[in-house]
Amino acid sequence: MLFYPTTGDFSTITVRIDPQNVDATIQQIQGIWSKLGFEEAFTFSFLDEEINLRYQAEARFFQVFSILGMLAIFIACLGLFGLAAYSAEQRTKEIGIRKVLGASISNIVALLSKDFIKLVLVAMLVAFPVAWYMMQEWLQGFAYRINIHWWFFVVAAFVALGIALLTVSFQAIRAAVANPVDSLKTE
Length: 187
Known about the structure:
The chain is 74% helix and 2% strand.
């Protein structure tokens, strides 16, 4: 079976061949190509190999994107950790007074984490529409693609909130467990 374009570029012809005698069939096609007198040299490739090469490029892109994404998350966690440490340091006296007045560790952790959770939620409100739009544009280039469902973003929100809570809670728990006498004495 032979497919060739009727308009435009005539440099590509698609031929469906029997997989039994591939070498002999390619030699026959090459002979016919040379008899027809085309100016271009006869080169061939198999469609499954071409498709595989395209998906290998996507697989490499995924690997690079994953590494860069993890690096970005790590840097963001470092920044969030530094911000939490700074916030806990600035509120040392407040935390000491709250502990003396009977605040539990969970109350103090919630107090310190609340502001960061708000910031993460605002970041999600900005990032999710942009991510949805960019993913839709990127996926338009594929013949077989998935739809972006809302629950993908819900899962991403829980993961982001979990990472933020883990990052902030370490510093918040450290500040909440500290002896209030020491924190009030230094102020």
